[in-house]
Design a protein that fits this description.
By secondary structure, the chain is α/β, with parallel strands linked by helices. Helices cover 39% and strands 21% of the residues. It contains 15 helices and 24 strands. The protein has helices at residues 42-57, 59-62, 66-82, 84-95, 99-122, 155-168, 183-198, 213-222, 235-248, 270-282, 299-313, 334-349, 385-388, 404-412, 427-436; strands at 9-11, 14-16, 22-26, 33-38, 126-128, 134-142, 145-149, 172-176, 206-208, 226-232, 252-255, 261-264, 294-298, 353-356, 375-378, 395-401, 416-417, 419-423, 441-444, 456-457, 459-460, 463-464, 466-467, 477-485. Strands 14-15-16-13-12-18-19 form a seven-stranded mixed β-sheet, with helices on both faces. Strands 9-8-7-10-11-22 form a six-stranded mixed β-sheet, with helices on both faces. A three-stranded antiparallel β-sheet has the order 5-6-24, with no helix packed on it. Helix 3 packs across helix 7. The N and C termini lie far apart (71 Å).
């Protein structure tokens, strides 16, 4: 993969310096400067949107047959896989994540493009049942220009989940990566640019426009040429985007926050549950919308389970993402680390008991990084702020429950409804609980497993609409009905 120039972003199919202010990208493992990138400006967004609209309207793109467009998607997937090691190293430097996780994210992005290509090749329009002297058909067409706005925690996987179906649907995309982590999205943009160039297609089909959400994000969302918005991020920003989309009468999909319950029933396999609970909240250093950050354990198991959990959490290895032995890498930014620490201080103030962690690790190897120890807290009611608000860090709050009704009441007593984990040997109880819990995804005796073939979305303040799944492309298209008259007799009203 060509080395990324220090100060170029992808605007309207060309790599050049953005007209916005400088973005200093910092390695959260040691605080060192990686590079400086100039953000996009509103004028850059306007230029990119105009070029995207022209590119999307060209017959050389809009009229490509599905298998021809799929060939481009397959090529992008192959390029991502070919450069997975470089993409992984870049993302680890930019986000702090472990190399194991960032490689998996890169390969997931490649798989997303391949699955989307396969779905595109096999997608069908439909012949609907006629109710008169006509043949009725339902067909799908491109929307035009799509705005895709992603967070910093899993950039390349999130990028693929929006860009792949948007391109498959025949659209052009304005992609805005998070201000803190623009580098892997820009590298991804270079690979897409390469695939488009090889295919002789307009490169303005994708722009990568880093910058502040309040500047670049707003410019994308409010631009009159942007006819659909896909957003992953915080609920407050999601509400603002939903209002803007409603004002323009354009569709928006919103994948927002979570405060997901993970449930240990009295009949659970304790060893399996212990490993699953830790992975569910502490992998990715807790920086995941689906993190199982509220632990509900049946009262009969509560003390013994929590005691063993705390002992194991205390042994988790904290270190840089480049160390193969690291289980918890640094948080993405020092400011974010401080925000997580403030929530733990709040828990103490609310009467919570910090059973382990609750501070930054000691030692010179940690002093310059954005590290925070994995933390377990109890002695708080479900109404406490740290039980209700998304912390987005390695912080687990444990609560006991007495019976299923008590459990469901507490688990559903949340503004969010993104995910849930259930640990039990009882299949009937698992089914019953899975249907009663307000969550878009429920894992039973596992956690944080994903498939591009399975729809993903949230309930309540966790979002609107879904990503992934067999129909992922249709969300980036508009539906049209066609009526073909079969009766040669004139319509009767004029007779």
């Amino acid at each position: 993969m060509p080395r990324i120039p220090a100060d170029e972003i992808l605007i309207a199919g060309e790599f050049r310096r953005g007209a916005g202010g400088p973005i200093r990208t910092v390695n959260p493992a040691d605080g060192t400067l990686i590079t400086t990138v100039h953000a996009a400006s509103p004028a850059d967004v306007d230029e990119a949107a105009g070029a995207a609209a022209e590119a999307a309207a060209l017959h050389t793109w809009r009229d490509l047959l599905p298998h021809q467009r799929a060939r481009v998607l397959y090529r992008i997937g192959d390029l991502i896989e070919e450069h997975a090691a470089e993409l992984s190293a870049l993302q680890t430097a930019d986000t702090g994540k472990t190399l194991t996780e960032t490689r998996a994210l890169a390969l997931s992005a490649a798989g997303t493009f391949r699955y989307t290509a396969a779905a595109l090749e096999t997608a069908e329009d439909s012949l609907t049942p006629a109710r008169g002297p006509y043949i009725t058909m339902s067909v799908y067409e491109p929307i035009g220009v799509v705005g895709a706005i992603n967070p910093w925690n899993s950039p390349i996987a999130s990028d693929a989940q929006k860009v792949a179906p948007a391109l498959a649907g025949g659209n052009a995309v304005l992609l805005k990566p998070a201000e803190w982590t623009p580098l892997v999205s820009l590298a991804f943009g270079r690979l897409v640019h390469q695939a488009l160039t090889e295919a002789g297609l307009p490169t303005a089909l994708l722009s990568v426009l880093p910058g502040k959400g309040s500047v670049v994000g707003d410019a994308i969302v409010t631009h009159p040429l942007v006819r659909r918005i896909g957003f992953t991020g915080g609920t407050t920003t999601g509400r603002s985007i939903a209002h803007a989309a409603a004002g323009k009468l354009v569709p928006a999909s919103l994948e927002l926050g979570g405060k997901s319950p993970t449930i240990v029933r009295e009949d659970a396999d304790v060893e399996q549950a212990l490993a699953g609970v830790m992975f569910g909240v502490f992998s990715s250093s807790g920086q995941s919308c689906i993190a199982g950050s509220r632990l509900f354990v049946h009262r009969s198991l509560y003390d013994s389970f929590l005691g063993e959990l705390v002992e194991r959490v205390g042994k988790l290895r904290v270190g840089p993402g480049t160390d193969p032995g690291t289980q918890l890498a640094p948080l993405v930014h020092h400011r974010h680390r401080d925000a997580v620490a403030a929530y733990v201080d709040l828990a103490r103030a609310e009467g919570g008991r910090v059973l382990c962690g609750g501070t930054v690790p000691e030692g010179p190897e940690y002093s310059a990084g954005a590290y925070y120890l994995p933390t377990v807290i109890d002695h708080l009611p479900n109404s406490a702020r740290v039980c209700q608000e998304e912390i987005f860090g390695p912080v687990l709050v444990a609560l006991p429950y007495d019976d299923e009704d008590d459990l469901v009441r507490q688990a559903n007593d949340s503004a969010y409804g993104l995910a849930c984990g259930i640990w039990t040997r009882d299949a009937r109880a698992a089914w019953r609980l899975a249907r009663r819990i307000d969550a878009g995804t429920v894992w039973i005796n596992t956690y944080k497993q994903f498939s591009i073939s399975t729809p993903f979305g949230g309930m309540k303040d966790s979002g609107l609409g879904t990503e992934k799944g067999r129909d992922l492309i249709r969300a980036y298209q508009r539906q049209k009905s066609l009526y073909w008259g079969t009766d040669a007799t004139p319509l009767p009203w004029a007779n």
